[in-house]
Design goal:
alpha+beta, OB fold (Dihydrolipoamide Acetyltransferase, E2P), 421 residues, 4-stranded antiparallel β-sheet, Dihydrolipoamide Transferase, 31% helix, 7-stranded mixed β-sheet, single chain, Chloramphenicol Acetyltransferase
């Protein structure tokens, strides 16, 4: 009996997808839930797993081909036998796929059906290749989900023999998943490489140009003394982490300060729709995250109702999803205001570009100790430059400056966020 592997349903805003990489080829054995192919849309990477164990009888599309919803990607024969086993599976004997003879073929973590721990497809594949038991891995994802990074960290801490096995598996996976489509040329030792732009990168370029062409972007700057926030973190970080099992970072303070400032200046939380200005009565804050395939902006919905701990937990969850290419369309759709933290990469100052159709974006930067004059005396303080880019069509300069000053004031006196003043 044959089983068809089809393109999953795509959101209304996504017309098609591109084959980003196959993890198997025709004739290979495959187990149920093992990842077969990555589909790249202009927003996220979709992982398509096998819905049945068997042998891949046919692959109908090549890397780089465009596909639409419900098209058949591959055909699996779930009654076929394997005539040649992978190297890690032991002796090359003919056997049924549904009855693997070694734990390495299926992965020991599947043997214990009583352990109900969610596992990402990429982590599942790596665990099977390295014969890792599920009980040996501590998942860092939401609800204990085991991510690829958790498996890699486990392997890095194993003895050298396991490390070598991990290196070979990782090299094989990198070759299977990350090989770019490119044409190279060499003239007298001067090498050039032409790489096809990914759908996500092309979409990012399109949106950035759209923002530049269709909005009157202006940027205002200010600086903030981060010592009060840093002192508050130092005082409560251990109790906070013990209570909520998450570290207290800077981003949660900026999000809470931004929400309070947005309440005072509704135009900064608004957007333009044709000739109308839409004022949003909720605060969905986008957090710009750099993933392996480009910049993505997952959304913290109703941030006004979230505690600092909930914000930090959500940020960690989204960061893990971005690194593991498991963000969904819902995770990155919408948003009324965006915060970008170039400081984590060492940026001293920048002018962030709007995330359409939003009317403003806040840029955070690296913290540097600088001499500042306080009450007539020079003191050394940890300072951060802030940048607010905004659409001058609906936000006046006065509003933009006062909005940024409000954020500055709240960060320099964190108690104001509790009091709402």
């Amino acid at each position: 009996m044959t089983v068809e592997i089809k393109v999953p349903a795509l959101p209304e805003s996504v017309a098609d997808a591109v084959i980003a990489g196959w993890h198997k080829k025709a004739g290979d054995a495959v187990t149920q839930d093992e990842m077969l192919v990555d589909l790249e849309t202009d927003k996220v990477i979709l992982e398509v797993p096998a819905i049945s164990s068997g042998v891949i009888k046919e692959i109908r599309f090549n890397v780089g081909d465009a596909v639409t919803a419900d098209q058949v990607l591959a055909v699996i024969d779930d009654t076929a036998t394997v005539t040649e086993q992978p190297a890690q599976s032991g002796p090359e004997t003919k056997q049924k796929i549904s009855q693997p003879s070694t734990p390495a073929q299926m992965g020991q973590f599947e043997a214990d059906e009583s352990v109900n721990v969610p596992i990402s497809p990429s982590a599942r594949k790596l665990m099977a290749e390295n014969n890792i038991n599920i009980s040996d891995i501590n998942g860092s994802g939401k609800e204990g989900r085991i991510l690829k990074e958790d498996v890699l960290e486990y392997l890095d801490n194993k003895p050298q023999a396991h490390h070598n096995q991990h290196a070979e598996a990782a090299a094989h996976e990198h070759k299977a998943e990350k090989t770019p489509l490119f044409e190279s040329a060499s003239i007298e030792g001067r090498i050039e490489k032409r790489v096809t732009m990914t759908r996500l990168r092309a979409r990012i370029a399109e949106r950035l140009l759209d923002a530049q062409h269709n909005a009157a972007i202006l940027t205002t700057f200010n600086e903030v003394n981060m010592k009060p926030v840093m002192d508050l973190r130092a005082r409560y970080k251990e109790k906070f982490e013990k209570e909520y099992e998450v570290k207290l970072g800077f981003m949660s303070f900026f999000i809470k300060a931004s929400v309070e400032a947005l309440k005072k200046f509704p135009a900064v939380n608004a957007s333009i729709d044709d000739n109308d200005i839409v004022y949003h009565g909720y605060y969905d804050i986008g957090i710009a995250v750099s993933g392996p395939n480009g910049l993505v902006v997952p959304i913290l919905r109703n941030a006004e109702d979230m505690t600092l701990a909930q914000v930090e937990q959500a940020i960690i969850s989204y960061a893990a999803k971005a690194n593991n290419n498991t963000l969904s369309i819902e995770d990155i759709t919408g948003g009324t205001f965006t915060i970008s933290n170039g400081g984590v990469f060492g940026s001293m100052l920048s002018t962030p570009i709007l995330n359409p159709p939003q009317s403003a974006i806040l840029g955070m930067h690296t913290i540097k100790e600088r001499p500042m004059v306080v009450n007539g005396e020079i003191v050394v303080l940890p300072m951060m430059y802030l940048a607010l880019s905004y659409d001058h069509r609906i936000i006046d300069g006065r509003e933009a400056v006062q909005f940024l000053v409000t954020i500055k004031d709240m960060l320099e006196e964190p108690s104001r966020m509790l009091l709402g003043v």
